Amino acid sequence: MAEAWATGQKTQVEIWTERYRIIGTTIIPSGAGHSWRFSDILNKPDRPFLPLTEVTIFSLDGGNLLWQGHSMTISKSFVVLATDEVH
Q: What InterPro entries does the entry give (predicted)?
């Protein structure tokens, strides 16, 4: 299973928490006879955290840029809304 995550498709995602809008890149696993979707990753109970790279965080109150960085991990329990259709 670890190989599928390492060789997956890089996908830009947008995540909203109660206070932040986060844009970053995650890996959608591929292989092993399974076609993964972003929603599959969010609903996978044995992976409580979502790793992101190329991360930008904005405040929901005013949309101010708060932080940009190479990587972060977010607890999926804080996710209110998530999409892989970033505009």
A: DUF6812
